[in-house]
Amino acid sequence: MENIVLGIGVAAFAGALAAVAGAAEDTESNIGSQGDPNSQVQLAPQMGYIHRIYNKAVAGEPPAWALWIALGAGLAWAFMAMNINPVLAIILGSVLASFVQGVYATTAYLGRTASLAKFGQPVYIDVLKSVTPVTTAHAFVAIFATVTVCWLMNAVLGHPFPMPILGIIWGIALGAAGSAVGNPYYGKERQYQNQKFGAGVPISASGNIVRYAEAGERSSIDNGWFTAKFGGPASGICFGLIVFFELWRHLIFEHYLAGWGSVLMGATIILIITFMARYIEVWARKTYGPYTAPAEEEAA
């Protein structure tokens, strides 16, 4: 009975940590224009729209966050192997991983912006100095919370995977949650507020992102404010629910095959979802068939 209560408590605590991580991840991503529509931020100077938006998107969010979370979890795991207190080890691992994220953000911003020099886009040193620490601070929050989830699964719940492997898995999930849930708020609802709501982004408006505020030019800090109100909480709820329900699978099947029962059940669930997706795809193709032009257009 005590183990069941402990497992429920860990699942709830991990879900809360994941909610914080999801909100911080999406805010970090949108401040750095790593999410949608980063291509439009890169395109803007080529269309004549010089801007002060931070631009560090040289990788998608899932692989980037897999690297940072796995790095933080691996370093924390190594520190624990040196008999350092787990809390201090997680903090040290998260700080070092955040430092790598800061280096990545700096080189990515300088590299991407310098490539646009031929179009008149300058490198704003004040933007680099003001935005980089903000993205790194949000990255630390997300890395610390997710690495703590990895440690809870490994040390408290007895998951058979080591912390670095759990870091890769949850890093990919964290980046995917922010990219799929939170970025639409930032992409279409913030960067293109100069377009009519629901109108999409016509080709004629490509690169015409929002660049000015009520008093002067906007920077990516404003995107962080917007994301903290909308996309961040949505991403946090998404990732928190993923972690919470995922741990229930582990709690139910961890007692089989020395903990590998939960892994096999996870693989089984993935196969079932894959077959369901394939069945729906085939059904949709047979039901609706290939696209055909309207009859009146063919007649004209």
Question: What would you note in describing this structure?
Answer:
The protein has 300 residues and is mainly alpha-helical. The protein is built from ten helices and two strands. The protein has helices at residues 2-31, 38-43, 61-81, 86-114, 125-156, 163-187, 220-229, 231-253, 260-288, 295-299, and strands spanning 212-213, 216-217. It has a two-stranded antiparallel sheet with strand order 1-2. The longest helix is centred in the middle third of the chain and has 32 residues, at 125-156. The chain is globular and about 65 Å long. It starts with a helix and ends with a helix.
Which regions are unreliable across 5 or more consecutive residues at pLDDT < 50? none
What shape does the CA trace take? globular
Q: Strand share of the residues?
A: under 5%
* Rg (CA only): 22 Å
First CA to last CA: what distance? Answer: 74 Å
Strand order of the largest sheet: 1-2
**Strand elements, count:** 2
Structural class: mainly alpha
Mean pLDDT: 87
Order of helices and strands: HHHHHHEEHHHH
Tell me the helix content: over 70%
Biggest sheet descriptor: 2 strands, antiparallel
* Total of DSSP H or I helical runs spanning 4+ residues: 10
